Amino acid sequence: MSKDWPLWEVFVRSKNGLEHRHFGSLHAADAEMALENARDVYTRRNEGVSIWVVESKHITASNPEHNAELFEPAQDKVYRHPTFYDIPDEIKHM
Amino acid sequence: MSEDQIKNLEAQFEARIARDEKIEPKDWMPEKYRQTHIRQISQHAHSEIVGMLPEGNWITRAPSLRRKVALLAKVQDEAGHGLYLYSACETLGVSREELYDQLHTGKAKYSSIFNYPTITWADIGAIGWLVDGAAIINQVPLCNTSFGPYARAMIRVCKEESFHQRQGYEIMMTLANGTPEQKEMAQDALNRWWWPSLMMFGPTDAESVHTAQSMKWKLKRKTNDELRQQFVDQTVPQAELIGLTIPDDDLKWNDKRKSYDFGPIDWDEFWQVVKGHGPMNKERMNARVSAWENGEWVRDAAVAYADKQKEYKSKQAV
Amino acid sequence: MEKKDLYNYILGIADNPLILGQRLGELCGHGPSLETDIACTNIALDLFGQTRSYFQYAAKIKGENATEDSIAFLRTEREYTNVLLVEQPNTDFAFTITRQFLFDVYHYLFLEQLQKSKDVNLSAIAHKAIKEVSYHQRFSSDWIKRLGDGTDESKKRMQNAVNDLWRYTDELFHTTESDEAMIAEGIGVDVKKLKNIYYSRINKILEDARLEIPESKWFQKGGKHGLHTEYMGYILSEMQYMQRTYPNMTW
Fold it and tell me: What is the model's pTM?
């Protein structure tokens, strides 16, 4: 038969207060196994306090070929950034 | 796409790498870039998992509990490194099973050093000190390579690798400071592992086919000979410090170059092992293939169980 | 309280993780998948870590320059008091995981009680170890279900392993003289009392895994008195090789 275990993406929160970050991937037959494997593979050195796993096929990724239309329009929206606005020097924090 | 369009894309691609931009899996890339990366990353992954075997050979015989847990943890790390690297390779659209298949059928290469046998405990020290030492020199520049997933995997690998070399050197140091029998064991291991370690950096620059292209793609930052020299210069004082002798009559400090000169490498031996006729090539491959074949029913059962559970859950939902 | 009884009692606990860790260590690099390989090695590392804690404590009690290593490596076969279950070989992954499961469930119940020991050292070791073993138990139980209820072949292999290893389960609940002495002191765990809950937990998982619970009432024993199966000599030959070949050296 020989069916391959699907690929999973692993996200680990390294400590409370931080977001889950993508750590890598692994193979597992089911979600429980993916969690257990993630724990053994990616938190051997105390790297995490919480793990998410998601089967890779469920991730929809943007296409780099569309990067121009997706991301470049945000480049000139300088008014979204605080430095766009002039305030008197006397006001130190705003 | 027309030929001109491809040329144009390639030029843009090379320019991105030259600007130190990272390439990510879904980005357009020249086919040769993809193939070269699949080859190098998988070769690297294979080396990690084949590398588990010579060291794994001593887990049950480690001389103390402290040494046993350190060795177990180290060999386990290598499995982890293999896994990170296979994952990086998979982002290029090739499955781990395909990669295994290439390894098992002899199509893919792995580091030849693992085709030498570990016959005494001191070999475990020598591997950690020399082989991991050489590997680190090869690997550190890769943390900055152009392909994002490979660079990220290497950062993780290098972080974890640093205990390996210290572990090995500590074993050698303990032996060298031990009884005459122990010291002899350490020297014997150094004698056997020294030259194969130098060969780990690959053929001389004159003979190396991939270097120029690899430099451009930041798969390499220095040439084989430069890295080899770095290894020699770094390792000779470490051997002296613990009173072991590098097995090379031609080895001497060159004050002009501020480096050690060393004797000629036996390239015939190198090619013999690369071509599959080293002392342990067959045994290493047999071990990998039988682990994979013996595990097939386990992997299949896990998939079958997962399918049943899914079916069960969807029935429950109705 | 007899110092000897406490010492023997600790060895009786610690020889189990030692020998089971040794068996798991054989598999490192040969597992059915990279992920499983890493997981089994993690369990082995936990077990050796526990072993070291127990032996370091035992060495203090023994005195006379005893160390964790002299205790681990320099006894004769008759002086090892692990149960027969843990020395059984890695015939295939079904045997490995069944052996693990049959031990883990016991190990967890045992440590739960050992946490309450009047001996603060043992209680502290148990407190730390139980978190590890709780995970081992989950890991091996999950695999029992996957393989028991996986394919026809996996079911057959699992049933075979369960049937074979079943005869070594009863011994887990035997006690030696030292055990009884320690139980009387409030230091040791009365394993006899764990038997019912053990089998009810085991049976539940086996049922979930659609495996048959063996009916055999014929059990093997001896490990706790240093009478081992023929496998033990080979385990020790490997494990003790360096210490025996090169005595009195530092590694």
Answer: 0.94
